[in-house]
Amino acid sequence: MGRNHKAASLVAAVMGALLLAPIQPPIASAAIKATANPSTLAISTGSMAIFAGDSYTATNPFGVLVTPVINGRAKVFFIKNTGSFGVTRFVLTLSLPSNTNIANFRRCNINVYFSANDKCKTGSHTSLTINENVATTIILNLPPNSYYAFQIRQNKNTNMTVSVSASSTNINTSGVSNS
Amino acid sequence: MSQKRSVLTRGASSVTLKVTIVITAALGGAGLVASNVFAALTATATNTSGGSVTTGTLKLQLAPSGVSGITGGFTSPISAMGPGDTFNRYIDLSNTGTLDGASPTLQIVTADSNTLVNSAPAGLQVTITACTVAWTNAGVCSGTSSVALASTPVSTLKASAQIITLPSVLVGGVNFLKVATSLPLGTENVLNGVLPVGTVQGLTAALTWTFVIQERAAVTNNS
Questions:
Q1: Tens-place pLDDT, residues B95-151
Q2: Over the stretch A122-157, which tens digit does the pLDDT of each residue have?
Q3: Does A27 contact chain B (CB < 8 Å)?
Q4: Engineered SS bond to A96: which of A127, A132, B17, B138, CB 3.0-4.6 Å?
Q5: How far apart are CA A152 and CA A105, in angstroms?
Q6: ipTM of the complex, rounded to two decimals
């Protein structure tokens, strides 16, 4: 009997506390705060877009370049940068049948195309070394909206696949800006 | 018989007289009370000057730097940001109220949801440095500089307000702040013009910066 009364009293006390708690005024919560007029900063990041194309006006194919090549004939392709970052190097892979003999591999100066076999529109060409099916790092500055024209002469009749990759660690336009 | 009647009459008259006296006394007392004629004394004192009470104000104002060349503040957008880049924006944060402040915090609000604002390691980072004088437009502090906020991911500032350390939150205090927003120098490989999954490239974010100060501790004044 007495135990029941104690239990009932405890329940009543708890219920009373629960009912009264929400209507109790908050204690020591009256501190005010001030918020500075909010200001919004708009941010956009740039992007890399480096790809191989069959002309200097080619648009990003979002894929490899597959182009036919003929034994002994010069073939020209382009590595373009249409992104917002320049890079200091890129990696080029030419997929050709094994044991393909690459007689010569040349390039013109930046933004200069081959006007004829082995002839740049302006300036002279530069010889490079590359092997088929081997990822080769080409150390050249390739700024945004620029291209390099490459010419290859090899000894197979096949379709050549040109693949190019670039790393964000080779972006050459990062830095600090104050404004 | 007539003598007995006389006694009765005399007795009735006596009772009537007593009742009359009591009533008269009661009415007289009530009249006295009603007319405040009782002798209880009161004294009132009032101040003849002062006594006014005014409350203070707590105001925090954010303004772009007034130094030529870096007056854009947060309204100067950041575009074509790349890995490894840092963009500094210069603001003045002032207590323009009449109450000292305390416990300053910063929170960033954004409606965007992408790697820039969601990823702690790969997303945007914020560092705030305070200077005792205005920053030069080359980002140089010719006074004394101090770290207001060590490098903190935007994702953290977005999740909850973070405590910052300002040189002065007292009345009239001006904090010259350099807010550096940077993108970590991560490694992303772009293959044949295709961006990798989860890239930080080609994204946008609109960050709203909310600086808050609390009222200084309540005081008890004796004077």
A1: 999 999 999 999 999 999 999 999 999 999 999 999 999 999 999 999 999 999 999
A2: 999 999 999 999 999 999 999 999 999 999 999 999
A3: no
A4: A132
A5: 5
A6: 0.79
Contact call for residues B93 and B174 (beta carbons, < 8 A): yes
Length of chain A: 179
B177: helix, coil or strand?
strand
* SS3 readout for chain A: CHHHHHHHHHHHHHHHHHHHHHHCCCCCCCCCEEECCCEEEEEEECCCCEEEECCCCCCCCCCCEEEEECCCCEEEEEEEECCCCCECCEEEEEECCCCCCEEEEEECCCCCCEEECCEECCCCCEECCCCCCCCEEECCCECCCEEEEEEEEECCCEEEEEEEEEEHHHECCCCEEEC
Chain B CB contacts of A34 under 8 Å are: 58-60, 95, 97, 101, 212-213
Cα dist from B24 to B21, B28, B33, B130, B215, whole Å: 5, 6, 14, 89, 69
Contacts of B98 in chain A (CB under 8 A): none
| Chain center to CA of B121 | 33
Residue B175 C-alpha from the chain's centroid = 18
The DSSP line for B74-142 is GGS-EEEE-TT-EEEEEEEEEE-SSS-EEEEEEEEE-S--SHHHH-TTTS-EEEEEEESSPPPTTS--S
Model pTM score:
0.77
How far, CA to CA in Å, does A108 sit from each of A54, A162, B129, B200? 15, 18, 48, 33
| Nearest-angstrom CA–CA distance, A36 and B73 | 14
pLDDT digits (tens, 9 = 90+) for A33-76: 999 999 999 999 999 999 999 999 999 999 999 999 999 999 99
Q: Angle CA(B171)–CA(B132)–CA(B70) in degrees, nearest 5?
A: 105
* Token pair recorded at residue A10: 């405890």
What distance separates the 2 farthest-apart alpha carbons in chain A?
112
The strand pairing partners of A66, in sequence order, are A161
